[in-house]
Here is the input.
Amino acid sequence: MTTESKKDKVFIFDTTLRDGEQSPGATLNIQEKLEIARQLSKLGVDIIEAGFPFSSPGDFEAVRLISKELQGPVICGLARAKKEDIDKAAGALEPAKKKRIHTFIATSDIHIEHKLKSTREKVLKTAVEMVRYAKSFTDNVEFSPEDAGRSDPKFLFEILQAVIEAGATTVNIPDTVGYTVPNEFGGLIKAIKENVPNIDKAVISVHCHNDLGLAVANSLSAVINGARQVECTINGIGERAGNCSLEEIVMILKTRPTLGFYTDIDSKQIYRTSRLVSTLTNMIVQPNKAIVGANAFAHESGIHQDGFLKFKKTYEIMNPEDVGLLTSKLPLGPRSGRHALKEKLSELGYQLSEEQLDKAFLRFKEIADKKKQVVDKDLESIVRDEQRIAEITSYYELENLQIACGTGLPTASVCLRRTSDNVFLKDSALGTGPVDAIYKAINKIVNVPNELIEFSVQSVTEGIDALGEVTIRIQQDHLVFNGHAANTDITLACAKAYLNALNKLIDGITTGTKILAQKSELEAKKGV
Ligand code: KIV
Ligand code: ZN
Here is the structure.
């Protein structure tokens, strides 16, 4: 018998692409959702809630594509307890090897009376009917009584018994508004186990929001009291203050084995997943964030450093390597060859084609000349950058950029190559700052109206020579396109990120396949 088999498995249900994407400003396009889903699969999550297909064509398409591509995890689609929602979810999940429909309806009196303008009886009837309806598409049906944390426990027991009878295989207990405290929430799970006669026919899941900073503590308390699925998100992103953070709950269960639980998460993939989600959602991880914050493994005080150097465990309860923070023993440098880069990338989990490797090697050499030591985070940033470029059609490429700025008027001169006819186009512009000047000069050449709605720069590593990762969002007619790029020269990264977004926008126009959901649809989704 292995140690694991003596412990109870906790299923990890990742909702980064659904609840996480409901974070203000965290809009992801379909390609980005696919990229995250692939990484979640590498991370080893059991279930990916890929979206809410009824909420927008973009969500429908994302769930469909993820269902088509990913064979490992169960792919789940959210649906209100309405036939039209369940139909859409079933349609989007159709290609999935393993699928789940997650349907929900509110059960607290405050929601029933003021939001649904209904009654407990009607809510119970709808829940049962819709679970049965969802069962006609798949055996794997999850039911959530929304705002369970503030629902009358007696009504909760009644509705849970009824939906399990109707075929729900997972019953999820959401603390929708993050109101409960650990003893209370754990007690609720215990009470559900004791008062729902057929509870052994379903897995108890929990879905905790972080309004009082208790999402992880409440989820842990629920697990200790009988829950065996935790719904969580990478970096804890989600509606308002977010959801239970995946990396925190997973590392608690791993670091404290005496609690008696395990997950199938490959914890070495945690850091990479966190970085990917942070970059693509443009949501910066606070430095003191547990597990994945920049300071999570940094020892600052002299006493701590002294103790740590004498014996690591004096001040470190987890190995940074266990969450995938490879403190590169052998960073690559300007003299490292293509072979060394290939080895290093494969160590990091990237298998590149020869052509991709050629491109990555060129980028690596450029950076190594400037930085001297290229660490894992730099390499990951380069590879992601190249992958992004490869994924989109390039209508314009940056050939040259010159900037003059300082106390005078910032000026940018830009030369772009139009790929359709290989013509080089040049223009220059003045701006309020260098970035403004670059964007104005590019606009003069490309001439596609759009509005810059978001712009951010994050440094990949510490130090003055760090790679800067630029994320921007542009909007045209309520459609939003993201652009990303990384470079040691931030102005170059700005120009490339803008072109990345413009190329996506042009692609949307020329092929007619709008890759992002309409703003109005997103707003509808935020109304969940
Ligand atoms: O917070 C919540 O109640 C939800 C449900 C849809 C599960 O996100
Ligand atoms: Zn939620």
In short: The CA atoms of residues 108 and 151 lie 4 Å apart.
